[in-house]
Write a structure and sequence with these properties.
The structure is a single chain. The chain folds into two domains: 66 residues, Ribosomal protein L11/L12, N-terminal domain (Ribosomal protein L11, N-terminal domain, 2-Layer Sandwich); 74 residues, Ribosomal protein L11/L12, C-terminal domain (Arc Repressor Mutant, subunit A). The chain is 44% helix and 16% strand. It is built from seven helices and five strands; from the N terminus they run E-H-H-E-E-H-E-H-H-E-H-H. It has a three-stranded antiparallel β-sheet. The protein has a two-stranded parallel sheet with strand order 4-5. Helix 4 packs across helix 5.
Length: 189
Amino acid sequence: MAKELVKKIKLQIPAGKATPAPPVGTVLGPVGINLGDFCSKYNDATRDKMGDILPVEISVYSDKSFDFVVKTPPTPFLLKKFAKVSKGSKSGARDIVATITKAQLKEIAEIKLPDLNAYDVEGAMKIVAGTARNMGIGVEGEEIEVHTPEKQEEEPIVEETEATEEVADEVKDGNQASTEEKAEEQSAE
């Protein structure tokens, strides 16, 4: 007989450093699974990735047993690690705080490929490059287009011709006619 799934829980825990203390204990304690057992299994499974923050998806079953799947590190974490910065830019692409090489971008994309919505490494590289751009991390060889307020305020130039004036007059006349028809209908009621 198959176990009945009670709950799925997602956490981000430093690799090899899970303890029954918060945040792990406060999230998993109320569910009723053995915290010591989970922490030891998680630490054994992630010991080779020490220093990384790893997302984990925990499936809790009705008999208080559990399974977990360790995912790849978050893209922003990997970008900060490869760029050797502590945090990204506060203003996104307007302020570049670091740059990474195409080779580093490809390496990050290969690490993240199993967890991304991409069919190949090139697609994953585009996703990772977009995240880097939003964090203010540039990629060597790619030019970043910065949208400034001056560019956004420019209005398109529209030349008025007699044809556009005629169309505007027809629309205006049509609106007046429909307004008059509505007024007549309301007075008839």
